[in-house]
Write a structure and sequence with these properties.
The protein is α/β, with parallel strands linked by helices. It is built from 9 helices and 5 strands, in the order αααααβαββαβαβα. A hairpin with a 2-residue loop joins β2 and β3.
Length: about 180
């Protein structure tokens, strides 16, 4: 069963949707509470939907289908490139979309200062539907042990490196 079966069930009836969603959550190996956390939908809302005590809002329906598809690796959520770096590096990104031929792929920023921040950001990015993560080489080997999506390392160009060395040298002379 995939996200499309949820769509079909949702178009059939509330009863059919609730039944299909219960089955899907079970197949994903999640509890309703875990699904709530993954989807951002309040647990009380999910329980009302599953107990057929509430009509499904279209925005909630979309979020459920996107979450199931994302967890399964399906194509409902918009793919994006996640960039994990310090805020100063992220501030240098001048565009929010990368063009690859006819396709536009959004860029999402994840600010991180510590190794723990990087790992949390990587897991979050994957859960949110990132198709690839860009991060510094110093953390890329560690990140790949925590996510299943590809990792691309960013490299500092010689110009940036030399500018930092010059700044450090100037501070050394002043000290």
């Amino acid at each position: 069963m995939c996200g499309w079966e949820l769509v079909k069930a949702g178009l059939t009836s509330n009863e059919e949707f609730a039944k299909t969603l219960k089955t899907k959550i079970k197949q994903l190996g999640l509890t309703v509470g875990e699904f709530s956390k993954n989807s951002g939908i309040p647990l009380s809302t999910l329980n009302k939907i599953l107990e057929e005590k509430r009509d499904l809002r279209l925005s909630t329906f979309r979020q459920i289908v996107k979450t199931v598809s994302r967890i399964e690796g399906g194509g409902f959520s918009e793919p994006f490139v996640a960039v994990i770096a310090a805020r100063t590096t992220l501030d240098e990104i001048k565009t929010r979309v990368i063009h690859t031929g006819k396709i536009k792929i959004p860029i999402r920023e994840y600010s991180a200062i510590t190794i723990e921040d990087v790992l949390k950001a990587a897991v979050k990015a994957e859960k949110e539907g990132a198709t690839v993560i860009v991060c510094a080489p110093i953390v890329s080997e560690l990140v790949k042990d925590f996510v299943t999506i590809p990792i691309v390392t960013m490299h500092i160009c010689e110009e940036d490196l030399m500018e930092a060395i010059k700044t450090a040298a100037q501070k050394t002379v002043k000290a």
